[in-house]
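Q: What residues go here?
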């Protein structure tokens, strides 16, 4: 598996743990206030990141480019700010709204970059093919 796919999965699982923790908090308290933070930590964090990681695992040459690594950094930075800012916003602190707005745009940029990766040409792989026994 390319290093970038491993990075995506290692990050995605952190968001699943955080997302589930928010879900448990809502279920146990009976107060479903932070639903949007829970939803987006799970769906943008865990599910979408795992899909990115899976795509790169099937397209290892694309996972080697600097652009793909930049896509990881921008997307991850966006969701790492968006998830806590949504949590705070849905707890009732309206001051977090501009932070959530800007970070959701950063997430969107990460998604557009991923679209560019998907539609882009397959670069020449620098990974040598595995030797097979004759
Ligand atoms: C043990 C794990 C989980 C717990 C305890 C939990 C708990 C909850 C609770 C209490 C709600 C609010 C329900 C409502 O008021 O309508 C909710 C909503 C939601 N959860 Fe979870 N959740 C868990 C895992 C997940 C995971 C892994 C995902 C996605 C991959 C997910 C996606 C959603 C979505 C999309 C909603 C919003 C549904 C709607 O709009 O009605 N949840 N969850
Ligand atoms: C930056 C990207 C995104 C933005 C800005 C965004 C924004 C929103 C907003 C404003 C709501 C309504 C929340 C409320 O009722 O208080 C919402 C709900 C929802 N979104 Fe997103 N969304 C994004 C990406 C996604 C993605 C990629 C998915 C699924 C893979 C998703 C799944 C949902 C679901 C299931 C709900 C309904 C449950 C809830 O209220 O949290 N969203 N989203």
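A:
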């Amino acid at each position: 598996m390319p290093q970038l796919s491993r990075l995506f999965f290692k990050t995605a699982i952190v968001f699943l743990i955080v997302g589930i923790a928010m879900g448990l908090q809502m279920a146990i308290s009976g107060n479903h206030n932070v639903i949007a933070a829970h939803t987006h930590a799970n769906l943008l964090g865990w599910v979408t990141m795992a899909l990115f990681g899976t795509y790169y695992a099937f397209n290892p040459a694309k996972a080697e480019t600097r652009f793909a690594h930049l896509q990881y950094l921008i997307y991850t930075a966006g969701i790492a700010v968006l998830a806590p800012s949504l949590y705070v916003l849905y707890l009732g602190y309206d001051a977090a709204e501009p932070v959530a707005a800007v970070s959701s745009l950063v997430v969107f940029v990460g998604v557009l970059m991923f679209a560019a990766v998907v539609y882009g040409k397959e670069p020449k792989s620098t990974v040598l093919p595995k030797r097979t026994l004759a």
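A: Context that may help when evaluating the design: The pocket of protoporphyrin IX containing FE (ligand 1) is lined by residues 20, 23-24, 26-27, 32, 35, 38-39, 42-43, 46-47 (CB under 6 Å). The helical segments are 3-29, 35-58, 60-63, 66-90, 97-119.
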